[in-house]
Design goal:
Layout (H helix, E strand, L loop, with lengths): L1 H26 L5 H12 L3 H15 L1 H43 L1
C-alpha cells in the first residue's frame, strides 16, 4: 500500500517545487531575483538539516501519529500567517493605489 502512495506524493512534491520556483522567478523583479531565490533556497533546502532532527526528536517523544499531527499543525499555522501577511499587504497596496488615484483626480 505504501508503495502505491509514495509515487503520487513524489509527483505532487515535484510539481509544487517546480511551480513555486517558477512563480518566484517570474514575479520577482530582475534586480531582486537573485536575493529572492537565495532566500527560497535557504528556507526550503537549508531548513532540512534543522527541521529533520527536530521533527525526529518530537516523533520519538510523542510517536509517529503525534509527530505527523504536530507537523501538520505547524504547516496550518504557517499558512495562516502567510495568508494574513499577504491579505494585509494587498489591502495596503489597494489603499495606496486609491489614494494616488484620488490625488491625481483631485489635481
Amino acid at each position: 500500500m505504501l508503495a502505491v502512495i509514495v509515487v503520487p506524493i513524489g509527483l505532487v512534491t515535484q510539481v509544487f517545487n517546480t511551480t513555486a520556483n517558477s512563480h518566484l522567478q517570474l514575479t520577482a523583479g530582475p534586480e531582486l531575483r537573485g536575493r529572492v531565490m537565495s532566500l527560497y533556497a535557504l528556507v526550503f533546502i537549508g531548513g532540512l538539516p534543522v527541521g529533520g532532527p527536530v521533527m525526529g526528536w518530537i516523533t520519538d517523544r510523542v510517536g509517529p501519529r503525534g509527530g505527523v499531527f504536530i507537523a501538520g499543525a505547524i504547516a496550518v499555522v504557517a499558512a495562516a500567517i502567510v495568508w494574513r501577511c499577504l491579505t494585509t499587504a494587498d489591502r495596503r497596496q489597494s489603499r495606496s493605489r486609491a489614494a494616488a488615484k484620488s490625488s491625481v483626480v483631485g489635481d
